[in-house]
Amino acid sequence: MRVLVDTNVLIIGALDLAINKDSPEKKILELLVERKLKLVYSSKLLEEYCRIALKLKDKQFSSWIRYLIITLDSNFVNDNEIEQIKDNFKDKLPKEDLVHFLACVLGGVDYLISNNREFLKKAQNNSFSCMLPSQFLEELKESR
Amino acid sequence: MNTEIIKVGEKGQITIPIKFRENEQIKKGELLEAVDLGDGSILFTKVRKKQEFMTAMKILGEQLKKKGIDTEEKIIKMCKDVRKEVYNEGFS
């Protein structure tokens, strides 16, 4: 199953791990690590993950996060491919969200998982589902 | 079971005997988890790949806590700001 895990999901999952709280975000991290989900990402999404790691700690930590993300079961969507189709969708979403929506389109995701409700609402389409982490886990449970 | 006596350095550094490193395939830069067993023993275990990711995420979470970014709302806001920042640096 291919998913794009929005930055807020990854970061909330990290906090929940540190405070030992069971949450859908934490479960999604576990599913990624168990390679039960294939992570679709672009350079911008990877940069967001790493930028937060850099802001919170240091460059070395940020590089470590980068290395760990790319060694997950993942599929990288090239910036050039995104550039080629972005004009077709330019009015659908705010510019900064558009690149992530297009990574979903090009990466053939089954789910876009985010806690940004505005992003989820605008990204609704017929090709893949846009869901909150809790909704995603619910759907995953039902499909098994 | 192999045993070796090792000396602790000035800043607490220790060197894992080469025989142990070879047997356990411990390479430079690899992470080890240290567990204080409370009886004068400290157990070192290799952090496996899966565990390494979760360890990194936990460290990230601890930093969030330390900096007071400890609610979903604060995290969502920070992520939105970072998204704008990354986007504004240009689409390459």
Give the SSE map:
The complex is a heterodimer of chains A (about 140) and B (about 90).
Chain A: E1 2-5, H1 7-18, H2 24-33, E2 38-42, H3 43-56, H4 59-70, E3 74-77, H5 79-85, H6 95-107, E4 111-113, H7 117-123, E5 129-131, H8 133-143
Helix pairs in contact in A: 1-2, 2-8, 3-4
Chain B: H1 18-24, E1 32-36, E2 42-46, H2 49-66, H3 72-88
Antiparallel strand pairs in B: 1-2
Question: Can you walk through the features of this model?
Answer:
- The complex is a heterodimer of chains A (144) and B (92).
- Chain A has 144 residues and is an alpha/beta fold.
- Chain A has a single domain, classed as 5'-nuclease (Rossmann fold).
- Chain A has helices at 7-18, 24-33, 43-56, 59-70, 79-85, 95-107, 117-123, 133-143; strands at 2-5, 38-42, 74-77, 111-113, 129-131.
- A 5-stranded parallel β-sheet of chain A has the order 3-2-1-4-5.
- In chain A, helix 1 crosses helix 2 and helix 3 runs antiparallel to helix 4.
- With 92 residues, chain B is mainly alpha-helical.
- Chain B has a domain at 50-88.
- Chain B contains 3 helices and 2 strands.
- Chain B has helices at residues 18-24, 49-66, 72-88, and strands at residues 32-36, 42-46.
- Chain B is elongated and about 55 Å long.
- The mean pLDDT of chain B is 88.
- Chain A binds chain B through residues 6-8, 10-19, 29-30, 32-34, 43-44, 47-48, 51-53, 55-57, 61, 64-65, 68, 71-72, 79, 83, 95-97, 99, 115-116, and chain B through 49-50, 52-54, 56-65, 67, 69-70, 72, 75-76, 78-80, 82-88, 91-92.
Q: What fraction strand of chain A? A: 5-15%
Rounded to an integer in angstroms, the radius of gyration calculated over CA atoms of chain B is: 20 Å
- Determine the fraction of residues in helical runs of chain B and give it as a percent range: 40-55%
Taken as a percent bin, the fraction of beta residues of chain B is: 5-15%
- Number-wise, the strands of chain B total 2
The poorly predicted ranges of chain B are: none
Neighbour order of strands in the largest sheet of chain B: 1-2
**Tally of individual helices of chain B:** 3
- Round the mean pLDDT of chain A to the nearest integer and report it: 95
Give the ordered list of helices and strands of chain A: EHHEHHEHHEHEH
Task: Please report the total strand number of chain A as a whole number.
Answer: 5
The helix fraction of chain A, in percent, is: 55-70%
Shape of chain B: elongated
- Note the run of SSEs of chain B as H and E: HEEHH
**What's the arrangement of strands in the largest beta sheet of chain A?**
3-2-1-4-5
Mean pLDDT of chain B: 88
